[in-house]
C-alpha cells in the first residue's frame, strides 16, 4: 500500500527574521479568486449604498390620522391637493406643497370606503359603512358656519366604492350592484348587475367617458356602457381583482391589480388574454393608478412595497 504524505518546506512559509514580509501562497485556480474578501466587502458596501439610493423618493409623511387610511382621492385641477379617508370615518384634505393638513371632517360612522372629487374640483363625494353617500364642499366653511354636507343620500346597502364622471354631473357607486346616480336625484338613474357577489371598485374611463369598469369578489372584471344600461363584457381571472385603473391616454387599455401578486393590462377589445402581465410583487396587489402621461403606473401591495411599472414592461423599474 502506498501512502502519499503532505510535506512542506518550511523555507516556503516561515520568515527568517521578524522584519521579513509574510509570504502569501497564491492559488492560480481561476475559480478561487485572490480578492474574494475584498470583493465581498465591495458588494456589501454597494448594497448598503443602494438601499440609501432607493430610499431617495421618500419626501415626507403626512401625519394626523388616528386610524388606518383606507382610501385616497386626487384633485382633478390642483396637483397640490390630496384627500384621504380613514377607518374612523375621518376625512382629511392635505396641501402637498406645505405638507400639512388643511381641513378635517368627521364624515361617516365607521370606515370611509371610497372617495372621489367632482370633475370641476368644487366638491367631493364620500361613501361609508353607514350606507350613506355624502357630497362636501372643497372650500372650508366660513367662520361660524357648521361643517355640513351639501347632500346626503341614504342607501339600502353598504357602498364599497365611488367614482365620478369626467364631464357630467353623474357618479357611480358600487357595493351589492353598480348604481349610476344623477347629482340632483336621491335615487339611482340605473342599476347594473352581472352576478351576485359584492363589487369592490368602480372606475369611469377618462376618454370614452360613458364606459366604466368594475371588479367583483367572484373574480370578475365587468365593463359597462352607461348609455345602454346593460353590462358589456366580462373577464374572469383565477383570483380576485382588487381594483382597476384606465389608461388616461389610450381609451381601451386598463390595468387590474390582482390577488395573485400580478397586475394585468388588458385591451378591452380583446379580453381573451392580457396585453402584458406585470410581475414583481410578492403579495396581493391592493391598488393601482396611472401617471397622467399614460406611460407608467404605480402599484401598492400587501408586501409593503410601492412599485413603478412602465406600461410595456413586465417588471418594475
UniProtKB/TrEMBL annotation:
Q: Name one GO cellular component term.
A: small-subunit processome
The chain's coiled-coil residues are: none
Q: Share an example GO biological-process annotation for this protein.
A: maturation of SSU-rRNA from tricistronic rRNA transcript (SSU-rRNA, 5.8S rRNA, LSU-rRNA)
The lineage's top-level taxon is: Eukaryota
Placement of WD repeats on the sequence:
62-104, 278-317
Keywords, A to Z, come to: Repeat, WD repeat
Task: Please state what the protein is called.
Answer: DCA13 factor
The scientific name of the source species is: Nicator chloris
